[in-house]
Hints:
heterodimer; A: 5 helices; flat; B: about 375 residues; alpha/beta; Rossmann fold; 8-stranded mixed sheet; about 40% helix
Amino acid sequence: MTSRRGPRRGPEKSAASEEPRSSADAVRRAMADAAARWMDAARGVYREEAVRAFEESAPIVAKHWSTLLDRLWAMYTEPPARKDLQAVQRELHLTMVTSLNAMMKEIMGTPSFGAFAGESVESYLKAKIASDGLMEEMLRAIRIPTRTDIDDLHVSLNGLSRKVDQLLAAKPPAPAAPREA
Amino acid sequence: MRRTAWAAERTPRVEAFDHVRAGLELLANPPAVDVGTTPHDVVYEEDRVRLLHYRPVRKAPLKPPLLIVYALINKPYILDLQPDRSVVRALLTRGVDVYLIDWGTPSPGDRHLGLPEYADGYIDRCVRAIRERAGVDQVSLLGYCIGGFLATIYAALHPDRVRNLILMAAPLDFHADGGLLHRWTGPEHFDPDLVVEAFGNVPAEFLNGGFTLLDPLGNSYLKYLELLDRADDEAFVEMFFRMEKWLGDGVPLAGEFYKEFIRDGYQRNLLIQNRLTVGGERVDLAKLTQPLLVVVAEKDHIVPPESTRNLLGHAKSKDVQVLSMPGGHIGLSVGAESHRELWPKVARWIAARGVPPGRKAKARRTGKSGTPA
Lengths: 181, 373
C-alpha cells in the first residue's frame, strides 16, 4: 500500500499491492499490511512524519502547559479566602482537565493528526472490507444469503416501489363507471 | 456510640461522597424520559420520510406555514426535547404553523440516495403536500445543520416556492476557519468512497466518534463530572438524560449522500463557490433573494459560525438579519438562553414576514420553479 502522503520508505513491495487470489488472501494481506505499518513505525521508518508531528505539537503543549502553570500560580498566590479544601481541589482538577482538553483539541487540528487519523481509519476500513468479503464467500458456499444479496434485494424493492408510486401518480383518474339501468 | 456520631456528621467529605454515589446510581439506573411530546399528525409519507404537522395552538395560524428541514443524522426531537425547551412549541405558541421533515432511518436499500433525492426530491414533495394542504403557494423554510445545507440548495433551485429562508448552524462554507471536520476529511488522507464501501450506509457510531473527538473531554469525562456535581438538581438530571437519549439515538447516513457531502462539501467546497450541481442543475446562491435569517452559535465546534455567515456574501437577499448566540451547536435548540432570547425573536421575524390570516401567501415572482404542481 502506498501512503497518500508520499512514497513509503518501508518494504519495497507491499503485500496488498497485488490482486488478491481469494477473500481469505485479501484478509491476510490487509492484516499483513496493517502489521507492516506498525512494524515500520516501530523501526522508525516514519521518522520524518514523527519529527513533523513533534514540531507541530511541541509548541502547542508548551503553550498550554505555560497557561496552566500561570493559572495554578494564580490559584496558589490568591489570598486563601476559601477554607473549603475540597472546593480548591475541585478547582485544581477542573483547571487541569480543561487545559488538557484545550490542548488535545488544538493538537487534533494539526495536519499530522489529520494524516494519522486518516491512515488509521483507512487501515481499519480496508481490513473490514476484506474480512466482510471472506465472510460473504463462506456464506455463499453454504448457500446462505449475504449482506450484499439482501442489500441488492432492498435496492430492487425500493426501485420497484418508487416505480409503482410514479405510475400511480401519472395515471389519469379513472372515468366514472356507467351506471346500470 | 462513637461510630453513630461519626456517621451522623455531615462533613464536606461525606457530602461529596454522597454526591458521587447519587450520580453513579443515576448513571446505573437512568430515569425514563419523554421526548417529542408536542401533539402532531403525520400528513405525508414517502419511503422512510415523514412530514409532521404540529397541531396549531391558535385558531388562525400565521401564513405561510414554516417547514423545518432537519439534519439527516440524529432524530429531530432535539427540536422538541422537553416542553419548556421546545423550539416547536416556542413557535407554535407564537402563532407559527409548523411542519417538520423527519427523515427516518435509511434502510440498506437507501444507500444510493444522494443530494438530488434529499435536497430536491423529498423536500419538494413535502413542500407540495404543505401547499395543497394549507392552500398556499409558498412556505417559509428553516434548515438546521445539514438540514440548512439542504434547505439552501432547495431555496436556490426553487426560489419561488420559498417565501422566507432561516438557516440555523448550517454548513455552507466548509472551508471557513476553525473547522476540525474540514481538516480531518482532507482529500489527501480521507476517502469517503472507502467508508461507504465498508459500511454501505454510514453508521451513527462512526459519525458520532468524529463528533465526540471535536471536544474529547467535554463530550465524555467533563459532562459526567457535571452530572455527579448536580445529581440532586432534578431539572438538570432530566435534561441530561434527555440529551443522552438523543445522542445515543443516532441514525445512519445514506452512503451516496455521505460521499457527496464529504467530497463536494468538506473537500471541494462547491456550494459557496456556486459550483455545486444537483440533478444536473447548478445551485446558484445568487437566486436567494427571499428574506434571510441566519442563526449561528459563537462556540459551535461542529459548524463554525463563519461557515453559515459566509453565505451573506453570495445571497442577493435585501432583507437579511443575523442572530448570534453565545453557546454551541446543540445549545441553539435546547439552551435556556436560546429559549429566552432567540426563539421569540425568530418567531417575531417570521410573523413580520408572513401574510395576514385569511389571505393567501402568493408567490412573489413567476418562473419555471414557481409553476404550481
